[in-house]
Amino acid sequence: MGLGKRLARLFRALLAQEAPDDAFALALLEEEERELYLSMDPRDRAHGVRVAKRLLARYPEAPEAVLRAALLHDAGKALRPYRPWERVLVGLLAPPVPPYPLRQGLLGAFQVRRHHPLYAAERIKDPEVRALVLEHHAPQSLWGRRLHEADREE
After folding, report:
1. Is 137 exposed, middle or buried (0-12, 13-18, 19+ CB in 10 A)?
2. What is the mean pLDDT of residues 123-151?
3. Residue 87 above 70 pLDDT?
4. pTM here?
5. 62 Cβ partners below 8 Å, 6+ apart?
6. Start-to-end Cα distance in the chain
7. What percent of the chain has pLDDT over 90?
């Protein structure tokens, strides 16, 4: 990700008040996924909606499971309150940390940053959506790569 995109993302994280298109998202999500989506910070929900809409614009044939995965790909971050400066710090530093036990404080923030795909996937029932969420940072499939690319454009 280029410096310009990183600075724009930082600005959004620190200053922007985002209003996600929840109606778009809730219309796509399955009943049990809606609660997970709504547990996310509005900034993360808005990001997920942008990623889903980007995929839909680029790939109108995208399966619904891919769009649902786009909406939920960062849902594991909802395990911690959205703290902008903490997000910036853990985005800059990435020490290796185990996923469990989930800790409090800064160590927990590093865990959530590194393992948020796992934490989200553990709460998703649909196996196709779960698999795409798990691979959104390390894609293995065609749609996983497309999700990864759409996510990285932020």
Report:
1. middle
2. 97
3. yes
4. 0.90
5. 55, 56, 143, 146
6. 9
7. 77
More confident residue, 127 or 16: 127
* Three-class secondary structure of residue 62 per DSSP: coil
**Interatomic CA distance for residues 35 and 140, integer angstroms:** 27
> Are 12 and 50 spatial neighbours (Cβ–Cβ below 8 Å)?
no
**Alpha-helix runs per DSSP H in the chain:** 3-15, 22-28, 31-38, 42-58, 64-72, 84-92, 105-121, 127-134, 142-152
User: In the structure encoding, which two tokens stand for residue 37, read together?
Assistant: 């989506």
Q: How far is CA 144 from CA 60, 87, 89, 97, 134, in A?
A: 16, 24, 27, 24, 9
Q: Is the peptide bond before 81 cis (omega within 30 degrees of 0)?
A: no
**Tokens 């404080």 identify what position?**
105
Would the pLDDT of 15 be above 70?
Answer: no
Q: In 3D, which of 119, 114, 43, 32 has the Cα closest to residue 76?
A: 119
Amino acid at 152: R
For 77, 98, 102, 148, the CA distances from 41, given in Å and listed in that order, are 9, 24, 19, 20
